[in-house]
Amino acid sequence: MTDTKPLFFGLYEQACVGNGSGAVSLWTHPDDRRLGALDLRYWIDLARRAEEAEFDLFFFGDVLGMYDTLGGGPATALEWGVELPAHDPLLHIPALAAVTERIAFGATVSTTYEHPFAHARRFSTLDHLTAGRIAWNIVTSYLPGAAANFGLDVLAHDSRYDRADEFLEVVYDLWERSWDDDAYVGSRELRRFADPSKVLRVDHEGAHFRVAGPHVSPPSPQRTPYLIQAGWSPRGREFAARHAELIFVGDSDPQAIREGLSGIRARAAELGRDPEQIRAVVGMNPVLAPTRIEVQQKLDAYQSHYNADAQLAAYAGWSGIDFAAYADDEPIVKQSTNHTQTKETRSDAPPLTAGDVRGRFASVTAFADDRFIGTPDEVAANIEEFVEESGVDGFLLHQYLSPGSLDDFSTLLAPRLRERGLFGGRPSEGTLRSRLRTDGADRLGADHPAGARRR
Amino acid sequence: MTDTKPLFFGLYEQACVGNGSGAVSLWTHPDDRRLGALDLRYWIDLARRAEEAEFDLFFFGDVLGMYDTLGGGPATALEWGVELPAHDPLLHIPALAAVTERIAFGATVSTTYEHPFAHARRFSTLDHLTAGRIAWNIVTSYLPGAAANFGLDVLAHDSRYDRADEFLEVVYDLWERSWDDDAYVGSRELRRFADPSKVLRVDHEGAHFRVAGPHVSPPSPQRTPYLIQAGWSPRGREFAARHAELIFVGDSDPQAIREGLSGIRARAAELGRDPEQIRAVVGMNPVLAPTRIEVQQKLDAYQSHYNADAQLAAYAGWSGIDFAAYADDEPIVKQSTNHTQTKETRSDAPPLTAGDVRGRFASVTAFADDRFIGTPDEVAANIEEFVEESGVDGFLLHQYLSPGSLDDFSTLLAPRLRERGLFGGRPSEGTLRSRLRTDGADRLGADHPAGARRR
């Protein structure tokens, strides 16, 4: 694979107070500032910190409903602010782009609930306004509560992906095919905005969408936003092989990751794509302190503000399983197919009982990987080993405390990673895509189904 | 009516290069900066200027397709950038909110192409992030090209309004009813985000939408964004009487405006609303210079960068009439029902021939009102008279040149208006609604169909 040094680092965020990717209830910790997430100042401060910390990406997850699986209602989610509010991530990015210069932004948008014309327009707007600092995390959504908010029964997993495939056909045509490279003139002297002979309608007519076009935006720096994909199911991997440029890996075992990525890249090559252009990151929840004793003190403090029910409410939503309906010794019948972050999604995981799950959720480190908990030297060594074994290109940082976890990363861990050549000095100019591709291109090539649509 | 001094001033903008509300082709003038509209810096500069100029509102129009009525295709629109690009206005506002402190923002969003759940989430996000500096201009859309981009045949005028009525029912329930005033707790000490017993599902089931809820955002400063409405047709006026807080008047005759507003306010009172809370603004395209000779020089310079076809392409889209299909002496058969800005929409206007229309469009002042062209003293006097006759509360400024028209307003006209007590010193703190209501309330009262939904 391509050289993975220095590593790519993103901050994983969500426009909410109770951030399920860290530990939901830790907004109650006195050092945490997530209660300010309703206020733009919280986000501006955090984005500036991430840029100062030389992060490459500020990433937003998203949900379109409440976590109402646990106990059959949203009571726990509301008590603890589990991924609430669910504010629109896209509406945070322009503000953060206005107050930063280098860091790129990623936003999760579902192909299940948006219309491809409006979606293409939104990302073209963002790609222009951010000068190519934008990525789209393609998801198909899983929460039944979200489906009910849009008047849909939740689509079956595979048919969500079918709709996603057609959605992508449409947006690729709008982004790549509708305007030729030289269709935009933009010249006062020639008194010409664009050359009409080089702008095409798309006239898409499919099972899910009819879209006439032309696209209402000239080619933006990247045209298609940089494409992120997080599905790790068989169908998700096939989708990644076809479309993804950055894979948000849904596993924590280095060898399984290496095999999974290898499979995705082999399939991508079969499909005619350049597998070298597929990058991968994995989530990490570090807990860092200068000494082991201080690490333990931090964990104890986190634990004292941790609520297992809040975390279980998030996990119930991700997995679609209402653990409250199971006795402790009852095995969980339904296999999780949605969430990408937990060990349970690995196909070789043994069947769990509800008691096993509740037991695991007693600890604030239920979602953490021990590799990333320790002194800076320990964690830096573990990261190097993990990267060598797994072949990932970088990490998305989940914060236990915001902005404390980011600050700890920056002050404690980054210097150690820098010594190992794992951090710092990555390209920070130009489009996000150009920073991640081996050829430095701003736009997708003809080997990708988006680039292939260009005339 | 309520005291109209000092007047309310908004800047009318659209996230495009060829701004149809001024004169489309004037982006080709060497002093104009609209060609920078694809770049965030243009917008940041303009918003800062508008705030420094003590404007109350930065307003974005919007379209969701190309102007393809004239000649049956988008060629003229593409040549001249007629309301192109059609970038998403909502994605500009967070950036502008981040770099300003006082000015409020308005955005046009169609009820025809959005889903009410996603829409409610977007405006709740914006109302939180801007601390209540946000307004929604409710439109039902008219461009056939937009309908084709969403796989819809363009809905008949009245059925667009029916859909809009149901759309508003849903968003009002999400904004006002789903969360009680004290449902959000947000307390670290109590370890409580919200009180689940005070958060309701909406369970809307109607002809157009099924939306379960609850809303995914706690009550924002204004809850419902400040509501603007621009329709001036009979159905539009009925809609305004029910919903609008600020009417963007579709007429230029002061007496007709007074009568129209009086009719809307009387109807609002019949419906149980407080008519004092309904405000009105009208568009103005001023051309200002210290002397008459310099005014004429400006007009000559504008004229030399004016293209009648470009302006006619915009007008054809607004009116739905393909003037290219008519000979000069042919009367225009179809009555315009869409556009709110031109004299032709007045019901007492005589039938026009295509030649009449083309004749009018020969001049860069085709859309201007002579009252607002002149020396600062002349225009200030005309504004005072216009306000006294029409009863409007303020104006939306259309710029011939950006930012030159705004700067002219600020340096030449504002001082004269200030002397007359017509400009400056308006409230600039708190929510937009509190600045415009006689009672200073942040939220709608029970007399309004949105406020009436609150428990």
UniProtKB/TrEMBL annotation, chains A, B:
Residues 423-455 are annotated as: Disordered. Residues 436-446 have a biased composition (Basic and acidic residues). Residues 24-393 form the Luciferase-like domain. It comes from the Bacteria. PANTHER family: ALKANESULFONATE MONOOXYGENASE-RELATED, C2H2 FINGER DOMAIN TRANSCRIPTION FACTOR (EUROFUNG)-RELATED. Keywords: Flavoprotein, FMN, Monooxygenase, Oxidoreductase. This is NtaA/DmoA family FMN-dependent monooxygenase. Its EC number is 1.14.-.-. InterPro entries: Diverse_substr_monoxygenases (IPR051260), Luciferase-like_dom (IPR011251), Luciferase-like_sf (IPR036661), NTA_MOA (IPR016215). Pfam families: Bac_luciferase. One of its GO terms (molecular function) is monooxygenase activity. It is an enzyme of class 1 (oxidoreductase). The lineage of its organism: Bacteria, Bacillati, Actinomycetota, Actinomycetes, Micrococcales. Belongs to the NtaA/SnaA/DszA monooxygenase family.
